[in-house]
Amino acid sequence: MTKDPDTTPSYPRSAVLAFIPYMNHQPEYLSSAHTAICHQRSPNQHSSTRLALALTAAVAAFAACGCKKAAPAPPPPPIVQVMDISATNVPLSEEFIGQLDSPQNVEVRARVEAFVDKMLFTEGTEVKEGDPLFKLDVSPYEEKLDAAKGSLGEAQAALKKYQADVARLQPLAEKRAVPQQDLDNALAYVDVGKAAVFSAQARVKSALLDLGYCDVRAPITGLIGAKQVSIGELVGKGSPTLLATMSTLDPIWFYCNVSEAQYLRARLENRRTDRNLEDLPLSLILANGSEHSAKGRIVFFDRAVDAKTGTLRVRAAFPNPEKLLRPGMFARVKVDLGVRTDSILVPDQAVAELQGTRFAWVIGADNKVAQRSVKVGERVGEELLILDGLKAGERIVVEGVQKVREGVLVQPKTAAQIAEAAAAQAARQAEAKHGKE
């Protein structure tokens, strides 16, 4: 029996070599491969031709599929931290920085020119009104007083003589025993004598006054400061010399400057709560952060706003029975303005500002963000009071605002969810590290 000829197609070497470039995605060799296969001489001319056409079609399909690259997958939506807005009751307050001062700061000065003989007080202690403070040299003023008294005696003696002359001349003048002019002169001398006595009495009073100024006493009850002169020093020459300064400390005053906006906002809040600004309790916070034990109140608003600074001067009074507070101290006053109900507070970083407009990023039900303009009130701790633009039940972006823009899809996560995911990631990394070890 004769065997059938082997019909298994043989792949010419040139055809295989022509197909190799397509494995490297080089479709430019397609036409050359087809030509090489079709012109290959073989015993089975037709089988080779059919094989060449099949290879050509396969290569063309392979080239068509291999030349077109798949588009990359879009990145996942960014993860942002969000918070749900809820209404709450917010205690409102204002703080002002100012300085303490005494209701009475009295400068004790020398009113006469003299040398200081004695200092009769202890510096930095409280003295009572009328207590002696300084003794000045009285010798010159005692001499001046003696001289004034002598002049007064002379004037009084001269007046008595003039009065006696009138008493003697008056009946004689009535009998025309003496000229009327003599009586008139005597009466005039009486008037001159009275004037001289009056002047002498004034000089005596002046000498007594100057002598009294040598005994310097406390004009008020209060705390006295350091002495400004020393014993033996000449004071009062040319101008009154400052000897010491006294201050009353209970109550003590607090002065501050309030801007127009702060003043108007406080007035509006008081009108809303039906409370007078002057009746609000004030808390005094000292430089070390401690709070004064006694509450104060506002006692004075200045008449007008300072045109240079745009501020209004305000004074408050605080009890100071322990004399802890001293003039010149810097402090802060916290004013309790009441409670605003159904208020919305958001973190400071959730509100951005662009060209003078405040806004927040609100997340809708489809997890897309939208920019929302908001009206911001005062700061409450680390949060801002939102007066308009947001409402309870909405979600806003708190962290990751740099990742969002209008209409962008995001993955909203709460702070707790982000912390939980971070903890899980850290646990997986630790487990993987432990497995490698």
Describe, in plain words, how this protein is organized in 3D:
With about 425 residues, this protein is of the alpha+beta class. It has 4 domains: about 15-65; about 105-245, OB fold (Dihydrolipoamide Acetyltransferase, E2P) (Beta Barrel); about 250-340, Beta Barrel (Elongation Factor Tu (Ef-tu), domain 3); about 350-425, conserved putative lor/sdh protein from methanococcus maripaludis s2 fold, CATH 2.40.420. Helices cover about 35% and strands about 30% of the residues. The protein is built from 7 helices and 22 strands. The chain has helices spanning about 15-25, 30-40, 45-65, 140-175, 180-215, 260-275, 415-435; strands spanning about 80-85, 85-100, 105-110, 115-120, 125, 130-135, 215, 220-225, 235, 240-245, 250-260, 280-285, 295-300, 310-320, 330-345, 350-355, 355-365, 370-375, 375-380, 385-390, 395-400, 410-415. The strands form 4 sheets. Strands 2, 11, 12, 13, 14, 15, 19 and 20 form an 8-stranded antiparallel β-sheet that branches. Strands 1, 16, 17, 18, 21 and 22 form a 6-stranded mixed β-sheet that branches. Strands 3-10-8-5 form a 4-stranded antiparallel β-sheet, with no helix packed on it. Strand 19 and strand 20 (about 385-390) form a beta hairpin. The protein is elongated. The two termini are about 70 Å apart.
SSE layout:
Blueprint (H helix, E strand, L loop, with lengths): L12 H11 L6 H9 L6 H23 L11 E6 L2 E15 L3 E6 L3 E6 L6 E2 L4 E5 L2 H36 L5 H34 L1 E3 L4 E3 L9 E2 L5 E7 L4 E8 H14 L8 E4 L11 E5 L9 E8 L11 E18 L4 E3 L2 E7 L5 E5 L1 E6 L2 E6 L6 E5 L11 E3 L1 H22 L1
Parallel strand pairs: 1-22
Antiparallel strand pairs: 1-21, 2-11, 2-15, 3-10, 4-6, 4-9, 5-8, 6-7, 8-10, 11-14, 12-15, 13-14, 15-20, 16-17, 17-18, 17-21, 19-20
Helix pairs in contact: 1-2, 2-3, 4-5
